[in-house]
Every structure is written in structure tokens, then in C-alpha cells.
Amino acid sequence: MLRMEQDDGDLDSLVRKRIRALRVAQGWSLEELAGRANLSQSSLSRIENGQRRLALDQLVTLARALDTSLDQLVETASDDVITSPMIDGAHGLMRWPVKGDPGMTVVRQRMTEPPPDNPARMRAHPGREWLVVLSGTATLMLGHRRFRVETNQAAEFPTMLPHAIGTEGGPCEILGIFDRDARRGHLREGRGAGKDCAPDLPNTT
């Protein structure tokens, strides 16, 4: 059993509410989720209503049926909700690590140069990147294609495609999200490459 006694009463209630909220968000009835989780409808109803003790094996099954994980199902807010950025003046960017996924990094950078004219200066490496243009207009070079990304537009792409990003018609500011592999790729390849690609990330490991 997943024991949630007096000190954990708030967590117990939160988990039950979360199960119901996730079910409703999927548009599923009690019967539908119960079937997916191999539970009886009455058992699931008692779980949601607090009339049945939460069992660990049932939570694991429910998490899987709701397309989430047990950790996310029982997650509570930590004390360090607010994170301040690390300022990297040399690269002209701010960087935030993502606590839920230590391999992921969020970067904010002001760019002033257009992308390179020479395709040989574009880079490719494992990973995936996502970026949104906060102000101005950016140009994303991806393989043999050229994309104009305007303010409030976003782009997502696999970094195994040769890519580069720069400005169009004046400075722009971007917010980029790099998964673990993409971040490592920039750490390995970004030294001395200027701003031919998405932001070079400072190595803090």
C-alpha cells in the first residue's frame, strides 16, 4: 500500500483530485478509465472519492492508463519554484536549467547577425530544439530550406539536420529549448563558431 497518513493527507487528496482531473481531461467516463486500468468502476469511484485507500500497484496502473508516470501523479510543488537565470555575458544570453529534466536547458538570447551564407558553416548533431521568437524576425536555415520566423512564432526541429539561425532585418530575441543531446552538441561544436547556429551554450558541468 502507498501509506498516506495524517501528515500526507493533502497529498492523498491531491492525488485523488489529479486522477479525476486527468480522466475528465481525456474525456473518459469512470467506466472507460476503469477498463483501461483493469479496475472495477466502483473501485475507481471510491479511489476518486477518498473512500478507498490508495494502493501503490493501482496508482502505477492508473498512471499508465492516464499516460503519465507515478512520479508525476504524486508530484508536489517544491520550495524552489522560482529560478533565476544564469547570465552569460560573453555569449549574450541567459540560461535556465529545467529541474524536471536536468538534461534540458532554456536559453534566451539577443541575436544581431544574419545566418551564414555558406552551407558548410551550418551544424548538425543529435538532439531536438524548439525556439520562439520574442521580438524581431529570425531566419532559420534547415537543410536546404530557409524559414522566416516572426515574433511569437515558434519552430521545432531535429538537430541532425544541418541548421543555423540568425536575424532578418535587424536584431531579434529568441527563447530556445534544447534537449540533452542538442545541448551536448552545442557544447562540443559551439566553440569558436560564432552565432551561426542556435545559441552556443556555456559548459557548466
Structural write-up:
The protein is an alpha+beta fold. It is 28% helix and 25% strand. It has a 6-stranded antiparallel beta sheet. Strands 6-5-8 form a 3-stranded antiparallel beta sheet, with no helix packed on it. The two termini are 39 Å apart.
Can you summarize this structure?
This protein is α+β, with helices and mostly antiparallel strands and 205 residues long. The protein is 28% helix and 25% strand. Strand 1 (86-88) and strand 2 (93-97) form a beta hairpin.
Amino- and carboxy-terminal Cα gap = 39 Å
| CA-based gyration radius | 23 Å
How big a fraction of the residues is strand?
25-35%
What about the largest sheet? 6 strands, antiparallel
Name the quaternary structure. single chain
Could you say which structural class the secondary elements and strand pairing correspond to? alpha+beta
Order of helices and strands: HHHHHEEEEEEEEEH
Low-confidence stretches: 1-7, 191-196
Number of helices: 6
**Average of the residue pLDDT scores:** 80
How do the strands and helices of this protein lay out in sequence?
Layout: H1 9-26, H2 30-36, H3 41-49, H4 56-65, H5 70-73, E1 86-88, E2 93-97, E3 105-111, E4 128-135, E5 137-142, E6 145-150, E7 154-158, E8 163-167, E9 172-178, H6 180-189
Q: What labels would you give this structure?
A:
single chain; 205 residues; alpha+beta; 6 helices; disordered N terminus
